Amino acid sequence: MFGDFRLDEQERDALNAISSKIHKPAKCRIYAQDEPARYLYIIRSGAVRLEYQREDGRNQIFAFLWSDNMFGTTENGLYRASAVTLIDTYLFQIPYPALRTLIESRPRIQALFLQHALKYTKATERHVLLATCSLVTKRLAGFLLECSKQADFFDRHSHILTLAMDRKDIADYLGIALETTSRTLKVLEDMDLIKRLSSQRMQINTEQIRMMMSR
């Protein structure tokens, strides 16, 4: 746990001591929007989506999270959005009260959690840029390119990408209709940028997609 953190052995032991390893099956709600925030989470393996329910009933997915990503940020003691597993997922669960106590005695740990928060902020910025792109083909192609950065879901030798999410999730994330997502996948296939193997597996031409995104 915390393999990427620059902690000494005592700090790692202290964090592990307040953390629990938990498992959540696919399509399982970890916590709900506006629920009292009790835990911070770090993904050991699997994938999670963060979604916000609008007042008009529409659902907005604003983040997909992967191994080593942290989530569970709060506002006024409540979770700002719902967190739902996409596939079988294993998590580290850290109680907020215990984390606050630990940070008081070991303040350097707080800086390391802030590093995770900055990574999340950068991911949010990338999502905004992607979702506001005027060309839907670029939105979807850029999204597939982002997914290809996840080693657990992309085979660099065969160039086969296994999507953790379904088409509705993608549509909600990119702010387009489900039908538009399906049509655009067909367009990308006609452009020889992808080759669909099943509903959630495809071979993607990452170099050609990068060239298209740069134009």
How do the strands and helices of this protein lay out in sequence?
Layout: H1 9-17, E1 20-24, E2 29-31, E3 39-45, E4 48-53, E5 59-65, E6 70-71, E7 74-75, E8 78-79, E9 82-85, E10 89-95, H2 96-105, H3 108-131, H4 136-147, E11 154-155, E12 160-162, H5 167-174, H6 178-190, E13 194-196, E14 201-204, H7 206-214
Antiparallel strand pairs: 1-10, 2-9, 3-6, 3-10, 4-5, 4-9, 7-8, 11-12, 12-14, 13-14
Task: Name a few traits of the molecule.
alpha+beta, Jelly Rolls, 14 strands, 7 helices, four-stranded antiparallel sheet, Arc Repressor Mutant, subunit A, 215 residues, single chain
Notes on the structure:
40% of the residues lie in helices and 27% in strands. Helix 5 (167-174) packs across helix 6. A hairpin with a 4-residue loop joins strand 13 (194-196) and strand 14. The protein is globular and about 60 Å long. The chain has 2 domains: 9-129, Jelly Rolls, CATH 2.60.120; 135-214, Orthogonal Bundle (Arc Repressor Mutant, subunit A). It has 7 helices and 14 strands. The chain has 215 residues and is α+β, with helices and mostly antiparallel strands. This is cAMP-binding protein.
